Each structure stands twice: as C-alpha cells, then as structure tokens.
Amino acid sequence: MRGKKLALLQKSLSHRLISWFSAHQRPLPWRQTTDPYLIWVSEIMLQQTQVATVVPYFSRFILHYPSVHRLAAAPLEEVLSLWAGLGYYSRATRLHRCAKFICTYRNGRFPSTRTELMALPGIGRYTAGAIASIAFGQSVPVLDGNVIRVLTRLLAIPDDIAAPVTHTLLWAIADQLVPSAHAGTYNQAIMELGATVCLPRHPHCGRCPVQGLCLAHRRSLQNALPVKTAAPRPRKSHCLTVVIEAAGKFLLLKRPPGGLWSSLWEFPTFHTITEPTTANRAAHIIRSALGLYVNSIRPISPLRHQLTHRTFEYQIWHARMDMPPPGLSLPDCDRGQYQDFAWVHAVAERPCGAITRKIRERLC
Q1: CATH number of this structure's domain 235-362
Q2: pTM summary value
Q3: Which pLDDT band, with edges at 50, 70 and 90, does 72 fall under?
C-alpha cells in the first residue's frame, strides 16, 4: 500500500482517530497544554517509562521547575534528586543540559520546526516531532513503539521492526499518514491507541476505532504482528558493594558523568568481582581502595538489579568504623574515578539511584 492508497487511508484514519481520541483520551497533566517546555519534559520522562509512573514525577518536577529558565538555573544535583526513582538518569542530565543551551543561545525560546528542534542537545527525531506537532501544529509524524505497533498491524507489515530498513520504511509511512491539519492531536491519538487498545498482547480489537481499516485484523494477524527478532540476553555484571558506617553516618561516593548512573551517589562499588568474597577480602578491598580500616564487617544478603539490557549481581558487605575520617582516597568505578565523597545520615541527602536505596533498606 503506497502513494495514492496511503493518501486515501490518511483521510479516514485521521478522522476516526481524532474523533475517538476526543472521547476516550486519558486525562494526563501534559495533555491540556501546547507549552513546548511541558511537552518536552513529558516526552523525555515517558521514554522507556510507564505513564502511571511518570504522572506524579511530572507534576512534582513542573512544580519545582515551571519554566525552562528555572530548570536551567537549578543545580544538576537538585534535578537528579527530584528525578530519583524514575530511572535512566542520563535523561535528567540531558534535560538539564538542553535547558541551559536553550536559555543561553535561544533566550529561553523553543524553535518551532522539527529540524531546529533536532539541533538541540538530547532531542531526537521522535521528541522533535512530538514538540513540533503538539506545541506548534507542524505536520510532522512521531514514531515510537506504540505507533510502530499500530502501523504494522494496520498495514500488515511482516518485516522485522528491529531492522533499520523497516524502521526507515515506517518513518516514511508515518510521514505520509500524518494530516496537514490537527497533526498534534492525530499524533497523540495514534500513540494513545497503541497504549490503550492496540496492545502488544491480546489487543482490544472490538474497541478499536480503525478496526475496519486494519489489514492484520482482516487477516487474523493481529497477534502475530509486529515481527521482531528476539533481543539478546541481558549482559551480567558482578559487583561488590561495601556499606561503610561510622558514628551513624554512611559513606557515599559520587559517580563521574556519563553512563547509567551519571553523577549519582552510591555506596562504594567495585565491578568485575565474580568470585564469592570473604570478610577478610572485603576488608582488604576497603583498605587498599579507600585507605580505611574498619572494626567489623558482616555480609548482607546479595541483590540482583535488572535493567533492560543488563543484570547486576551485587555482593554486599556492611562495615563499621568509629569515626568518619576527614579524607579518603577516591577509587575507580566502572566509568572512571569517583568524583567526590560524603558522610551522610540518610542516603536521601544526595541524589541516589534505586539500587542504593534498596541496599540501604537491607540494613534495617
């Protein structure tokens, strides 16, 4: 189905989707606005994160930073603290960096075209399309996992969606189907359809406003599409984490910029340690890496932390010493050297990832 047939499909598809969306859309806090800043923040938060998880974080974030100027002026550590628990922390770092760029070089104003938006740091084709269409009414498409699923079923596309050539094809189809008017509403509608009706498993075809247009439904292929090659098994990483406590305070180290937990604080963690560690071995690592001598050390039950593409296996030891020393050696971590240290009464005093909070809970 190409060219003229797609043009014919476009009229019926956009009309049905927009009508359905006006009656069935979820009342999300970023839906009732065309402010490019709010749309941008919501789209970044929604990357690889469920809507139900994002809603409270979005509301709290916008309360603290109601404008791009306020976000740009905030310290990165404060932004990371507010992001804590949402995961994929590099998103917060990129958001902060882009806010600074917009305020420095564009006087706090977002550009209105997809091309200009994609020139901003950290904004790709999908996010640029969402902002340009929803905030500025530009007739440009979006293509995320939900839209991919809708399009492959609608047109019964049997090709592997993990293949770059298929991705290119789907962008071209999305570009032909987006209407010249009300593109932002159409884009939100097709994403909403994929999120609430055209589900990955057991789609609700009986509730679908475009069921009559769907080739996959007509051919009973809706549960077979889209086709995607199996993802590789998550890579395993083995870590040794030491929780060092002195006079009621805990030692945290600040990670360097970049990577999974960019600039976050954590308990000292050493990677590529696969064999079971003894108390003597853990105490030796603390002495050699940190220059600290502990009075006692005990094991904590191991912990597994699962990410999309990696599995982290943690051996954990809880060590005690009398008083926090005024200084210590900053060891290397998996991304280079730790940047700073702090002795804190509670891990919430610094921006930390979920794994650090989980480890702290195990000490109770």
Answers
A1: 3.90.79.10
A2: 0.87
A3: very high
